[in-house]
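Appendix B.2, paired examples.
Example (i):
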Amino acid sequence: NDEKKFFKAWQLNERHYGALTGLNKIEMSKKLGEEKVLKFRRSWDIRPDPLNKESPFHPLNIVTYNDLPREDIPDSESLKDTFYRVINFFESEIKNKINSGNVLISAHGNSIRALCKYLFKLNEIQITKLEIPTGNPLLLSIDKNLEILECKYLDQERAKDLLIF
């Protein structure tokens, strides 16, 4: 069957940065200091302060999320939280499709980071060091046991060290 199917999944959305939502890196650094921002951005299990539920940036106040169960919508997430959200979706919706053919996953940086942690079997220290270049597809050849047979960035000039092989 050559039919192409596309699915949108909120579970592959970017990490919820809580009270830091809506701020760019410079604004975050001014507000909290560079060290604390780096800790929030790259630590495994530290969440930023929760986003006020009245904020227009809170998913509770964004129409796109109206159909989601309220208990699934966080006020803030750590990379660990994002990891479990992404991997639960991967296990339930993507994993079985891999053996049926090619699968293209397009997601945000921390969602891709979470998926890389899982597929490359990275620990909590390794994942904080993984650099993922924006807009440079990563091609993985995976066997039925999810073992990586081959891994390469399509644009080798912008490739980053994958820390895996």
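Example (ii):
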Amino acid sequence: MKEVIRDDGRRARYNDALRAGVVVALPFAAVVGLFGVSFGVLAASTPQLGAAAAIVMSAATFGGSAQFAALSVLAMGGGSIAATLAAVLLNLRYLAIGASIAGSMRGGWLRRLVAGQLVVDESWALAARPGGRFEMPILLGAGALLWAAWVAGTAIGGVGGRALGDPAAFGLD
């Protein structure tokens, strides 16, 4: 990518890479959004969780497989400790993913914390470069789009899922 300095001094290359991250993640976002709808429908029909908690969980956790695992444990009558343990075990892979990307992250602890929230399997893979490097603007653009798709999907499923009735009737159980 050609680097151009704009009048305001920002690097156009960074912004172009952010946009490229969004564009390259579009196909993934469509699927992530649909899975989010499924999660929202199931969560809305689970008395232990509900739609509002599922939306907050999706915004704060952004870990689809772990969220489905926790939801499954709760739906089967398990307690919150078992649900949390299932989610933690599924997300242990993020220790290795985080270690692999740590050298590419810049900024203070708050910036790194926010950027770390956007590291999911898809954004990590899209940002990977030869030699163990990662292009952070690609990761951030892709991660932000995927996060928005997941949260929006959860909200749509959680709110609209009640109108569908029993999720098992649609094969979503």
